[in-house]
Specification:
The chain is globular, with a radius of gyration of 24 Å. With 481 residues, it is an all-alpha fold. Strands 1-2 form a two-stranded antiparallel ribbon. The chain starts with a helix and ends in an 11-residue tail after the last helix. α10 (207-224) runs antiparallel to α11 (232-251). 38% of the residues are buried. It has 19 helices and 2 strands. The chain has one domain (24-94, 109-279, 379-474).
Length: 481
């Protein structure tokens, strides 16, 4: 009788929902149609947060900005990922206090401590911000990215199989975006450099962000190609997939992404040759000294380069050092100079996290402005993951972020050195090289305020930290590939 009553209620409520939804659809109101999906996701989060995280990772490459649907909004977020990330934040806080299943070693790892310091300073500089509402929105966004893609990810990576699942759950939908972009690009000719800027729309708002993510995954896919034993068909599939990613990277016409892959190759050579850190520091000091001494001659040489961005790949690469006539390079330099001037005025607390785009305009000087310069917070970031925090959160904003990077690299090298299974060595090194591409790209662009770049960036760091914590001698014996 009890089961029959439950069925009656289920049928009754379902009937009422279908009737109400039908009426609303007839009146062109569609919001009620999403209720079952929302309830399903809530249930998934309560019963299996690890699966909900993988769903979010899967949706991230294909998420779309809310402004694509409602253009006159004063705020923006990516759908459906960011509302889900906020939900994960609430669930994670609840479960952290209500369960003992969380591995506390993750929370005490040096990288985690560095993240806390960075968040604390962002919080402090949000209080002192010139635009507190903007800064606290920036802080909340950073927190929900870290909660999902780092803190929750490290917990589910206690099962080593989830490390590769996380990567594949991003790669598979991203492959669909790549195919869409190439098809879109081909309508204007694949060698059309200008078409590359809009071909990624609406999934990515910028071809450089698209290129940055491509660059991050290429070392990882190459690493996957060297694992899996004698699974030849799997290796052939990964080889083809890697080729598609490289082809897409070339067509992205993102010079910063191309350079970042080159930096990863150099780091790979250094690691494989086991070059001592002392030699690298000495070489770095020597190179820096030579550049400082020879800077007048170097500047003259750079000013002679008038090769602008081009559809020809060789000329496009040459345009990287054009600081005389290439508009993209000149505007980037303009943004950097503005960030430095902003830092000089507020060196300790900065202007507030996320405020650069609203505050930099008065710091532009006439001889630095270009034809694409703007005063209206359009495309207004600092084009640097290092100078951006410097202007927004002062010297400690950049310093705490650099500490995260340094400790992540140290963690990755330690995991690579201590791993006893070849699969772990390959995974740790390929993930570290993927991060190196973004650390390099960060000198020229900044995308960590978006879910697209945050998912692989913090996820890769989470993989290295989880391997450092969980890949003891016992876990090194686990077959996870």
């Amino acid at each position: 009788m009890t089961e029959r009553k439950h069925l009656v209620w289920i049928y009754l409520l379902s009937g009422i929902f279908i009737l109400a939804n039908s009426i609303l659809i007839a009146k062109e109101f569609y919001f009620l149609s999403f209720v079952p999906l929302i309830l399903a996701l809530v249930a998934l989060g309560l019963l299996a947060m690890d699966k909900l995280l993988l769903v979010i990772v899967f949706l991230t490459p294909i998420s779309i900005s809310l402004k694509e649907f409602v253009t006159d909004l004063e705020f923006d977020l990516h759908l459906p990922t960011e509302p889900l990330l906020f939900g994960i934040l609430l669930l994670f806080i609840f479960k952290s206090f209500s369960t003992e299943n969380m591995d506390r070693r993750i929370f005490l790892h040096p990288v985690s401590i560095a993240i806390y310091l960075n968040l604390i300073w962002i919080f402090i500089t949000s209080i002192t911000s010139t635009l507190p509402l903007v800064s606290f929105k920036f802080l909340i966004t950073r927190i929900w990215f870290l909660t999902a893609f780092y803190f929750l990810a490290t917990q589910i990576f206690s099962n080593p199989k989830n490390m590769k699942r996380y990567i594949w759950f991003y790669v598979i939908p991203f492959l669909a975006v790549i195919v869409y972009t190439i098809i879109n690009h081909s309508q204007y000719g694949l060698v059309n450099q200008k078409a590359a800027h809009s071909a990624v729309h609406p999934f990515y708002n910028d071809h450089t962000a698209y290129g940055a993510v491509l660059a991050m995954f290429i070392p990882v896919l190459v690493g996957f190609g060297f694992t899996g034993g004698k699974a030849y068909f799997r290796r052939i599939f990964i080889l083809i997939l890697t080729g598609i990613f490289i082809f897409a990277l070339v067509l992205s016409y993102s010079r910063a992404a191309w350079l970042s892959v080159g930096a990863a190759i150099l780091v790979f050579i250094v690691v494989k040759l086991r070059i001592r850190i002392q030699y690298l520091i000495f070489a770095g000091i020597l190179i820096f000294g030579l550049i400082a001494v020879s800077w007048p001659e170097i500047k003259i040489t750079l000013e002679k380069n008038r090769q602008d961005s081009s559809k020809e790949f060789s000329k496009h690469i040459q345009s990287v050092s054009n600081i005389t006539s290439d508009v993209s390079n000149l505007e980037r330099i303009n943004r950097w100079k503005c960030a430095v001037r902003m830092f000089n005025e507020k060196p300790f607390f900065g202007w507030g996290p996320g405020t650069y785009m609203f505050q930099y305009a008065p710091f532009q000087v006439s001889h630095d402005r270009t034809i694409i310069s703007t005063n209206f917070a359009e495309h207004g970031n600092a084009h640097s993951e290092y100078l951006g925090p410097l202007s927004e959160s002062g010297v400690l904003g950049t310093l705490t972020f650099l500490i995260i990077i340094i400790l992540s690299v140290i963690t990755g090298l330690r995991v690579y050195k201590n791993a006893t299974k070849p699969e772990f060595k390959i995974l740790s090194l390929s993930v570290l090289l993927g991060l190196i591409t973004y650390f390099t790209h960060g000198f020229l662009n900044n995308f960590l305020d978006s879910d697209k770049a945050s998912a692989p960036f913090w996820g890769f760091i989470a993989i290295l930290v989880a391997m450092d914590v969980f890949t003891s001698k016992a876990i090194n014996r686990i077959q996870f590939l």
